[in-house]
Amino acid sequence: MDNDFLSKLRYLSGDRDITPWLKSMGFSAGLVGKVLKGQPASADLLRSLSRTERVSLRWLEGAGGPVYDVWRVVDDQEALEKLEAHLDDEDWSVLLVTHNDGEFVVVLHQPGSYSLRTKGSTSLKEIKYLIVEVFSGNITLDTIRVLDQRDQANWVLYLTEDDFNRLACGYMGNMELFGFDDPRKSKKGLYSKVKSTLHDSTLREILESGRSDNKSSVTDARQVETAGSEDTATQLNELAGYFKRLDAKARSVILNLLKVMSR
């Protein structure tokens, strides 16, 4: 378990130096040294990793599954229910991630902090970090249209299909997405590639096109309805002409049948 945890810790650290990285979470150099020598990870360390890195506790504890936590939704309705519950309660920044302008991952993020009292310490430390929530699944332009109507900036990030799938499935973490800034080094994340909001992006044209398509569909339906009415009128005229050509007895029989059928 200890060696397994160390390998996971090295994997999560990425390009960061482990000691300053863990110290930024409030852990002393002495405690970090013990962890690197194989001491079992404390509950505080596991919780801190889960909070700051969005790492799955199940994965950390050896239960398998995706490395990073992701909210999975089955359709746009569930996506909007979860997203609006978050957006109504707190001030989140919204990042719309796509690779093809049709499938989306929605990332919410905001500055946050938590208090930590490490072993042997009598005071609490305030740990600042970036809170990140990732939503993926069957999220389409229908969700994006609703988010577009809210009073907030929606930033757009285009990824390769491979990177998009890694994020959606829980195999891209906060460090790769947003980068890091440690005392000794820093690195930009994929977020640095964001160049525009939804309002200014090419995605805006697609949304507007979608709305036009909806209008066209309504127009087409009305045209079909009108065409159907015209066809019906033509058929009625043909029946009226046929009816006139019948003799009086035949017309009487048909009229009586129509009266019975209309009751």
What share of residues is helical? Answer: 40-55%
Order of helices and strands: HHHHHEHEEEHEHHEEEHH
Whole-number radius of gyration? 31 Å
The helix-and-strand class reads alpha/beta
The number of distinct β-strands equals 8
Counting H and I runs of at least 4 residues, what is the number of helices?
11
Euclidean distance between termini CA atoms = 83 Å
Q: Main beta sheet, described?
A: 6 strands, mixed
Short description:
It contains eleven helices and eight strands. It has 263 residues and is an alpha/beta fold. It has two domains: 2-201, no CATH class; 209-262.
Q: Explain this structure to me?
A:
Helices cover 51% and strands 18% of the residues. The N and C termini lie far apart (83 Å). The strands form 2 sheets. Strands 1-4-3-2-5-8 form a 6-stranded mixed sheet, sandwiched between helices. It has a two-stranded antiparallel sheet with strand order 6-7. The protein is α/β, with parallel strands linked by helices and 263 residues long.
